[in-house]
Amino acid sequence: MQPEIRKIVTYDEEVFIEGFKAAVPPWRMFAVAAVVRNPWAGRFVEDLKPEIQAYGPVLGEMMTNRMIALAGSGDGIEAYGKAAVVGLNGEVEHASGLIHTLRFGNFYREAVGAKSYLAFTNTRGPANAPIMVPLMDKNDAGRRSHYLTIQFSIPDAPRDDEIVVVLGGATGGRPHHRIGDRYQDLKDLGHDLDNPAAV
Predict the structure, then answer these.
(1) pTM for the whole thing?
(2) For labelling, which of 2, 71, 83, 111 has a CA lying 20 to 30 Å from the CA of 103?
(3) Which fold has domain 5-188?
(4) What is the helix (H) or strand (E) element at residue 70, kind and residue range?
(5) CB–CB of 59/192 below 8 Å?
């Protein structure tokens, strides 16, 4: 069982001026999207596991390789995330199923040497629906400079019976970031940094 991939779309944005000031070095955000036929479209399927287990490794490895090629190396990616958009003849559960499996995400996580979880969105929409890929620092979930969002769309995808599966990355955080990290907020609020829920 193999995913039926109609096409691969690559998004690559390089910012030279951000906030009226030069970005040095230039700031890059990029993504790889696979437009895949939804094997569950148009019907309720109780057990999604066979397709998840079959599709996850194929998509995870192929898309990770393309992301590393865009960045030049795993070390070149500081922020990362994932997303999926299911077409109108599918469930949000279908989008979730293809990206919320270690068989998919672990390829990317290991290739970039990450410690934090992969930020995500899973939505439903028609062709040309907004694809939003939230990013976060691959090693530090509290590093706000790397809270980013890649946004793009594919004019002819997803079709009603398709799912767009996406990996995203960035070479750094926002240029000129100046809102600080969440740790200072926790400290200011009197929370224990090792146990933020404690006061």
Answers:
(1) 0.93
(2) 71
(3) 60s Ribosomal Protein L30; Chain: A; (3.30.1330)
(4) helix 49-71
(5) no
